[in-house]
Amino acid sequence: MLDREPLLHPIAIDALRPTQMTVGLREVARKRGEWRARAEKSGLEYLGQHMIPVVIGPKNHRWLIDNHHLARALHDEGVEQVLVRVVADLSHLGGRQFETFMDNRNWLHPFNEKGHRKGVSKIPKHIEQLSDDPYRSLAGELRRAGGYAKDDTPFSEFLWADFLRRKVNLDLVERDFDDAVAKALKFARKPDAQYLPGWAGPHD
């Protein structure tokens, strides 16, 4: 059931179902820039190196379990199709069984832009309907600034986003993003962040 061979034919981005409610639109903009820099000369190679992991669910819907920011960026740039890697085929499960399995595998993240959990039915059905969580962008930039290490924990950036939501004022995030990142770095190095995936500890 798991770790199947990748499908080597394109899948329409419009056909992909998200497993989360939000993205960081600053993160999306950064990935759009990366795509524009590569699209003309090495776009096909880029897509081949960034196959999107999916789970096949009821009615053969393809559910994204990672790379929502990339899928949204490509969609916003007018890319119509991507290559996918099928992680599991759960098409034989009923709706409630599917949701329970996905939730237990941490393949669902039904939390809104305020960090509040919602029903799975509230997850958008299309990648362009994902709303903006500024703290997800802050968490992504914090990792690139060395605030924590990349970690395989599902939705690890969202765990950091929820931590930062309680530490850094939203007005600062929207008004002076660089200053918000600097403040986030200080909080990321404190002991009360050590429960988070990729915590790097204090630095001199």
DSSP strand count? 7
Q: What strand line-up does the widest sheet have?
A: 1-6-4-5-2
What is the CATH-assigned architecture of the largest domain? Alpha-Beta Complex
Figure out the total of helices. 7
- Note poorly predicted spans: none
What does the largest sheet look like?
Answer: 5 strands, mixed
CATH superfamily name of the largest domain? Conserved hypothetical protein from pyrococcus furiosus pfu- 392566-001, ParB domain
Category by helix and strand content? alpha/beta
Helix content: 40-55%
Compute the gyration radius: what is it? 17 Å
Q: What is the residue-averaged pLDDT?
A: 93
Written as H for each helix and E for each strand, in order along the chain, the element string is EEEHEEHEHEHHHH
End-to-end separation in angstroms reads 47 Å
Strand content: 5-15%
What's the structural domain tally? Answer: 2
